[in-house]
Design a protein that fits this description.
The protein has 241 residues and is α/β, with parallel strands linked by helices. The protein is built from 9 helices and 10 strands. It has a single domain, classed as 3-Layer(aba) Sandwich (Rossmann fold).
Length: 241
């Protein structure tokens, strides 16, 4: 019998800031090797949840497990590539200097570091701009560099918070092709988005609204259950709008 292993387990998680409940009793499982999308409007709680799974925050109530171990855990974080919604780059340094800094944090040195920097910059189409100061990068270029950094250490799981915001459609297509290639190699990918055509590219989706998980399933399952022909209609149907 084939057993599917769980990569992520979110167990009855809530998050409260002051009097505001940002996450409300979220329970969710993501299996190894799938592309899972968290879909929802701004303020739905997507970023709050993925920060916890990346080990950067704790729930107020409940527990998060990644690779069957409770988060946050520094050792687990080495197995995860995280791209935040806000670019955490050193703008006074060049792109290469940023990459070298983060590569050292991941334990990449020498020839392997050189090779990985070359490879990830090719993925995000920034090879010709590797020596440019990040302060001279456009917003879209900064997003691409942040993605390159998340890919550097070949993580077992990628957590990407709206990775293609500000990136042109042609390059976005090539980046998703890179995601598919990584996924074929066994990388589990968790991506947040509010873009419906990106949501269609995911194996399964979790729909978030006002901090609550309102539905989980494949895009086709969600359409079928709600009698919808598009994910926009699905979201409206489940949200009761």
């Amino acid at each position: 019998m084939y057993i599917v292993e769980t990569c992520v387990s979110v167990q009855d998680v809530s998050k409260v800031f002051g009097e505001q409940k940002v996450l409300n009793k979220i329970s969710l499982e993501i299996v190894n090797g799938e592309i899972f999308g968290l879909l929802g409007p701004s303020g739905a709680g997507k970023s709050t949840l993925v920060k916890q799974l990346a080990g950067l925050d704790n729930p107020t109530i409940g527990d998060n497990y990644v690779f069957q171990q409770k988060m946050p855990d520094l050792n687990l974080m080495k197995r995860i590539g995280y791209m935040a919604q806000a670019d955490g780059l050193y703008e006074e340094l060049s792109a290469r200097e940023n990459l070298e800094f983060f590569a050292k944090l991941y334990g990449l040195r020498g020839k392997r570091q050189f090779e990985r920097i070359k490879e990830v910059m090719e993925v995000v189409a920034l090879s010709d701009h590797v020596h440019k100061l990040v302060s001279n990068y456009s917003g879209g270029m900064k997003r691409r560099l942040s993605l390159a950094i998340a890919l550097l250490h070949e993580p077992e799981m990628l957590i990407l918070d709206e990775p293609t915001v500000g990136i042109d459609p042609v390059l976005r297509k090539s980046i998703w092709e890179a995601f598919y290639q990584l996924n074929k190699q066994g990388t589990t990918i968790l991506v947040t988005t509010h873009v419906m055509d990106e949501a269609e590219k995911c194996d399964r989706l979790g729909l978030l609204r006002d901090g609550s998980l309102i539905a989980v399933g494949t895009p086709e399952e969600l359409k079928g259950k709600s009698g919808s022909v598009s994910l926009e209609e699905v979201f409206l149907a489940y949200g009761g709008v």
